[in-house]
Structures are given as structure tokens and as C-alpha cells.
Amino acid sequence: MALSFKNSPFAKKKDSAPAFGGEVSAPEQAATGRQQLKPGIAEYIAGETREFKANLKPYLPGDLVGGSIPHIPGTEDEAVWNAASQACSTEKVHYCYSVDQGRLWYLACPSNSLASNPDSWCPLAAALPGNSEYWDRQTVYIYEQEGAASALRWDPETGRMQVFLGAARTLLPRIQSMDANFVTVNPEVAQMVPWRNRALRTELLSRASARSLLLFGLLLNVIIIAVLVFSYVNMNFIKRDLDTVKRETEEASMKLMMNAANALQSDAIKHMVRVQELLDSLQTVDGTLVRYEVNKGKAEWEALLPTSFQGGVGTIKGEVQPGIEKDGRVRIKGKN
E strands along the chain, which residues? Predict the structure, then answer.
């Protein structure tokens, strides 16, 4: 049974698909510019681009569900997986979604529904808002495969997305009775929308992380080995000229030793010896040393002697100062 596109605004659309899986000629397929699926960054990092399936088989799951939830940027996969898990009563679900007008529109099915049809996709997903086969919410989107049919429509009163599944002989007459425009999704023309699976994605990211760490470790080891080889070559093949270094080291050592010797040399010992000599000599003549001063390396002293020794005694030789002290002694001033 075929549905008519008479009075439909989509009848003259160049890329519209024929009703109920009709054949599409090669020129029409070329005109649609259908893009092939390409592996993502995770597949490249994990090294699984050869295993990536670019051509998926169209398949209509028997347990297909659909709905919409508010769109929160950055949480799309988590939100759709949570809604799909509750709708399918299992965490092992395959899902796909699109974002349009602040909402996430999704289709999902239990993973075991695809047990006999791996590497497949649901052509009805191409009719989700924002995808290649979507026109507007007043249109009913139909897909038929092997006697089974599905329809995607929006309730005109509530705006909720509805998914219909059933045998083609019973579902199509029911859909045809609706007052709406109809578009049949042709999987040969529609842009493929692959299923997503949270567990498989997590495992893929784990393999990508492990491979990236392995490659980083190998690269680091290569760099370390290259540095060691370069150092070995420098140590064994570069000519060493240490004469200049040896001469400069010896000069610096000698200079350091001289500075250390000069620092250890001090006039304190010499002056202490001189003070002791003065005290010993003055003691023999009942004299007194009253001042010993060192100024800029020169010593100057004063002593009190009895008048009978004013000419000096022993090593005490100096200039007699005028006047007599209160005790009757004279003051002698020396500079040696």
C-alpha cells in the first residue's frame, strides 16, 4: 500500500525520498551528498580505525522507544542514557539523539534487541529534529522493513513525540487515517545516525587511554636513550683540552691561599708581645704603663717612671713629657 503526497508541501522537494522504501537512482544518491561515517579521535588514539564500521545496515528494532528531555549543555549523553535506561528498564541500552529548540530528542532500544543485527542503525533516527530527513512537527515519518513498520509523529495538542511500531499491514492504514503529511525515510538517502552505547564508549576510551600512555612511555624512553647515546659520544669522541682549565684552577687556588694567609696574619700578637715587654721592664723600676694605642698599624704608648729613670730603661725609650706627676714620677711617651 502506497501513500500519496498529493497536496503535500514536500512533494516538490528535490531530495525527498519515495514512499515506503522505493528505489532511488544513482544520480539522486549523488545529489544528496550523503556523508560516510568517519572514526572519531578515540578510534584513532586506540588504533581501531580499521575495525571502524563506516557502512551500517538499516534495521528496525522491535523494542524501539523514543521521547524528549530538556537539554543541558555538556550532559547530553548522561541525560539520554538515564532516560533511555528507565524507558527500557535496563542500563544496557543503545540510543541516539539530536538537539533542537532546547530539547534532546532521542530513540533507544535494549542492547539485546540488536543481538542478530550488529553494526546497524535505525533509519527512523534520521527523522529526529535537526537530522537530514526532518521537515517539521506536522509531518509523520514512516519506515518499513520486512513486513514491519514504524512511524514517528508529534502530537498536535501536547507536542510530545510518539513512536509507533507494528506490522505494516495494520500500522500503515492507521497512520494513513491521520490528517497529516507523510514522508517515508529512505535509508539509501538519509544520513546515517549510529547508535551510541555507554559501556562500549567507556571501554573504547579506556583502550585509547592505555594506548596513549604506552606510546608516551615509548617516546620518553626513546628520548632518554638518545640523550644517553649523545652523552656517550661526547665523552668518548670529543677532544678534551684541560690545560687552560688546569692553569686557571691553579691560579685561583694560589690566590685563595694567599688571601687566606693574609687574613690569618694579624698585628695583635706582635702588640701583645710588645705590651708584655713594656710591663716586664717597667716592673723592675717601679714604673706604670698608662696607655698603649695602635693607630693605623703604628703603636704609641705612655708610661710613668721615677725621675731617676727618665732617660729610659731597657727597651723603654721615649720622650719625656714636661711636668711632674702627682706621685713624683715623670711621663714618658714612646712610639716603638
Answer: 57-58, 65-70, 93-100, 103-110, 120-121, 139-145, 148-154, 161-167, 181-184, 288-295, 298-305, 319-320, 330-334
24 phi, psi to nearest 5 deg: -120, 130
Instruction: Provide the residue-wise pLDDT of the chain in tens; the chain has 336 residues.
Output: 333 333 333 333 334 433 333 333 333 333 445 677 888 888 888 888 788 777 889 999 988 999 999 999 989 999 999 999 999 999 999 999 999 989 999 999 999 989 888 889 999 999 999 898 888 888 899 998 888 889 998 888 888 898 998 888 888 888 878 877 888 898 888 888 999 999 888 888 899 999 999 999 999 999 999 999 998 888 777 766 677 878 888 889 888 888 777 766 666 777 788 888 888 888 888 888 888 888 877 888 888 888 887 777 777 778 888 888 888 888 888 887
Judged on CB neighbours under 10 Å (0-12, 13-18, 19+), 163 is: middle
Contacts of 1 (CB under 8 A, 6+ apart): 20, 172, 173, 176
215 neighbors 47 (Cβ within 8 angstroms):
no
Q: What gap in Å lies between CA 1 and CA 42, rounded to an integer?
A: 45
Q: Report yes or no: 207 and 43 within 8 Å, Cβ to Cβ.
A: no
Residues 6+ apart with CB under 8 A from 133: 17, 126, 127, 141, 183, 185, 190, 191
Question: What φ, ψ does residue 121 adopt, rounded to 5°?
Answer: -145, 160
Q: Does the CA dihedral 6-9-13-18 come out positive or negative?
A: negative
The contacts of residue 98 (CB under 8 Å, 6+ apart) are 104, 105, 106, 128, 129, 130, 131, 193
Phi first, then psi, for residue 277 (nearest 5°) are -60, -45
**For residues 262 and 112, what is the distance between their CA atoms, to the nearest angstrom?**
94
In three-state form (DSSP H/G/I as H, E/B as E, the rest C), the secondary structure along 265-312 is CCCHHHHHHHHHHHHHHHHHCCCEEEEEEEECCEEEEEEEECHHHCCC
C-alpha cell at 192: 546515517
As given in the structure block, the three cell numbers for residue 271 are 702588640
